[in-house]
Amino acid sequence: xxxxxxxxxxxINLLSAYCFAQQNDYYKxxxxxxxxxxxxxxxxxxxxDVYWYASVNGGLKIQQSELTxxxxxxxxxxxxxxxxxEASLGLNKADLWQFELGYLNNPLSLEYQLFDRSxxxxxxxxxxxxxxxxxxxxxxxRLFTLDKVTRKTRLNLLLGLKYSPMAEAQTINDFDITYIPxxxxxxxxxxxxxxxxxxxxxxxxxxxTGLELIGRVADPIEIGLFGKLLIDSKNTFGASIxxxxxxxxxxxxxxRLNQLxxxxxxTLRWNFHHAxxxxxxxx
Length: 283
What we know:
The chain is mainly beta. Helix content is 8%, strand content 64%. Strands 3-6-7-8-9-12-13-16 form an 8-stranded antiparallel β-barrel.
């Protein structure tokens, strides 16, 4: 009688444990668990994708310059937009935020033309260019996800800092020209003495902000578009203009690159390492 009682009690305990196991997530078989985003859910853990990636960006740098005095159009600026590129290594945490360290090949260019008062059809052209080799650190934060099904296309806010260690204070181009026009019926009309130099500032920091639209076309590959605003210091790159004339007053002006310049283009990213991070769910 006693043995039968203990056997029945043991059987009841086993049945209770079996029923409890069917309801508790800890004891469910993998095939019985819920599927979320293509993965089996775990009762006390959540998973995050972590990507290490290499990225290459390229596109157009839209530059603007400012002239202190044009002297009624005798000095006119030319806006030379340039191609640029950059490369970086970064970490992507669950498509929520990314952090990148990279290299930026940043072209700087200024150009203007000067008209002789006696012959406005033949301007003088002056230019100065410099390639700024700089390093950048950029933080990207997801604003929202555009693709609600696969959740792989997103819009990111960019905030960063650029440092130019090789941009030492120097003169890029220096012009010292005396122009004597051909003799005409009235003799020499206008003799010009032109002095102009293009000067670069000492090493400087620049701010970076912008937006990036990027999507994952496969686990290792992502493609996107971006627009970034490069915020330089006030006197990063400039040119002095001094012109003395025999028939008019001397011209003195200053041409400098604007503090705000746009970088626009395409980004290509290769996720060379994909890991899964497990974190505890909040109780």
